[in-house]
Amino acid sequence: MAKKTPHKTQAAAKNQPAPPSSWKRFLAPAAIVLMLGAAVYIFFNGDRIFGKGGNRTPSPSATNVANAAPGTTTENMGVTGEPIRMTVAQAVMVTVDLDFGGAPTTIADAIQQVERGYQPDDGQGRTFAILDAYGEPQPDGKLRMSMHVSSEKPGMGTLKFKRTGELLWRARIGNPGDRAAGQKSLSIFLDKGLGNNENHVLDGTRGGNSVLDVFLQNSQQKARDVWPDGTDRQITFVYSACGCPVKVMCRRVGDRTVRTSALPVIFPDDPAAVTTIANLMKW
Question: Which letter, b or e, does each residue of 40-79 get, where b requires 16 or more Cβ atoms within 10 Å of its Cβ?
Answer without folding.
Answer: eebbeebeebbbebeebebeebbbbbebbeebbebeebbb
